[in-house]
């Protein structure tokens, strides 16, 4: 992990730094990261508005779009980072090192605070990001856009066939049920139940087999990024992105009829739905921000977008540290300091517990905004 502080005139340096990036991409990334912080940190996990929760199994909510949007953005970013650097000596080594760093950061989050190697969860969000980044980066270096499209189609169709045709050992038939599908069987066989997501117990939402279609999400982002980096007129780029986004989304909705949209399984229909909506979202941001030079309020989310991994890692770590600090209650019980602050300062003004929980999440986002705004003003960018 590397911290970069730009010297000299802060305003000038900030402008130069952002100008080398696609501002709409930073905004879209920041919006996604802010949403991720919001849904991951409610004031009360027992009282959450439905759109801020994941779908129980088949189906989707707005929350289910956040992670694939981020992987889509990873794919777009690869084309700008590696496309600008070319395929020179040492690039593969840097890709592998960055991927390993992301994986280890995710593993550290799973270890903390117990550091029990016998029960630690091995998969996770950062681990999946690291694998998608690694595979997509190598594909980008070694293939053409046409070949990337073929790989994408192969992954989605191949995954669909594996999940709906291959009999599950011990079950005898292919199925998409939570604990008896092929992906779940592979997770508990290879990773073992001791090292998967504790809520699911015998399978993991970021498991092995479902990482294949997740790579497909990154490939959709790569193809989008390649298109945005082309020398075609901006109007043509936007028109085709909107068209491709609509068709991809429609494809996901049609595929949902026989391979249901499901985030936990990362089904092929889910890849198309989320990828299509991400294309539409980025196209809209690109049209407003980079083409029409709309800037009002953009910085509010750009500050999240320039330090995304920092936000995700620390927003997961700090609440765990706070919960290690126990505060005694009048009845003799103890609660973590995070819960104490929520009960004492945030929840009391609200009659509806869902509103209080949402206020707690928004407060956490606001605190992070203040921190990131300061980092942005000081031009502090932590690179992983």
Q: Could you describe the 3D structure shown?
A:
With 384 residues, the protein is mainly alpha-helical. The protein has two domains: 1-22 and 36-53 and 299-384, no CATH class; 54-293, no CATH class. It is built from 14 helices and four strands. A two-stranded antiparallel sheet has the order 1-4. A hairpin with a 5-residue loop joins strand 2 and strand 3 (334-336). Helix 2 (23-40) packs parallel to helix 12 (308-324). The radius of gyration is 21 Å and the shape is globular. Keywords: Membrane, Transmembrane, Transmembrane helix.
List its salient traits:
two-stranded antiparallel ribbon; single chain; two-stranded antiparallel sheet; 2 domains; disordered N terminus; 384 residues
Oligomer: single chain
- How far apart lie the N and C ends? 4 Å
Q: What global shape is seen?
A: globular
Low-confidence stretches: 2-19
C-alpha-based Rg, rounded: 21 Å
Helix content: 55-70%
Number of β-strand runs: 4
Structural class, by secondary structure, is mainly alpha
Instruction: Tell me, rounded to a whole number, the average pLDDT.
Output: 91
The biggest sheet amounts to:
2 strands, antiparallel
β-strand percent reads under 5%
Number of helical elements:
14
Domain count: the total is 2
The sequence of SSEs as H and E is: EHHHHHHHHHHHHEEHHE
With strands numbered from the N-terminus, the spatial order across the biggest sheet is 1-4
Transmembrane segments: 65-83, 95-113, 125-142, 149-168, 207-228, 240-258, 270-289, 298-318, 358-376
InterPro entries: HGSNAT_cat
Domain Heparan-alpha-glucosaminide N-acetyltransferase catalytic: 21-231
Keywords: Membrane, Transmembrane, Transmembrane helix
